[in-house]
Amino acid sequence: xxxxxxxxxxxxxxxxxxxxxxxxxxxxxxxxxxxxxxxxxxxxxxxxxxxxxxxxxxxxxxxxxxxxxxxxxxxxxxxxxxxxxxxxxxxxxxxxxxxxxxxxxxxxxxxxxxxxxxxxxxxxxxxxxxxxxxxxxxxxxxxxxxxxxxxxxxxxxxxxxxxxxxxxxxxxxxxxxxxxxxxxxxxxxxxxxxxxxxxxxxxxxxxxxxxxxxxxxxxxxxxxxxxxxxxxxxxxxxxxxxxxxxxxxxxxxxxxxxx
Length: 259
What we know:
With 259 residues, this protein is an alpha/beta fold. 35% of the residues lie in helices and 20% in strands. Helix 2 packs antiparallel against helix 3, helix 2 packs across helix 4 and helix 5 (135-149) crosses helix 6 (156-167).
């Protein structure tokens, strides 16, 4: 790590560092409860994703930035616990713009206009982890992706193939919805009452028609978890619930309530 007159940059064998040994990002951005130096942490993560596993084309720069940003959350999870890691991830949400795809075109020296490849990409990985719902499989995926392509190059399909292989499921549409399109999935739902019962209808509204992801609803404070895809699904509950809303945590998505 070499001190430099700018904030920081990953370089093989010599990370440029200029965060003035301050908490967070020149003393800002990272919540005050976390007393680590953001640049040391983020740029060191690039020794794995960026300097070792390098993207084949700049259209896949997210392989560097999304993984390095999510490594920050994993660092916090290890040292501070899962709840603290979730708070840290929540602090990233305000930086997500959703105005351009994270997947860039190949062969054109692509450069993104926003920081979504950092924060939205990090949230895609977190959403994927919490959709797989098996940390043994999840961390195997991370290690195998690194080990297979270390000191080499990888692209988006290489990562998707690893995910599909170790989950024994097809997460192509899931990853594409977050990275190929500018908008995240939207949970669209509506409810009505009939004969002292609640009828809850819901679906994922998104471009990828094969997209699916579990959803939790709060029914007057009671958590109910259900599988959901892009087709409308209606579930009947033998009781009238006054407050019905999706639970937005551990996965990144938008919400739309229909009357």
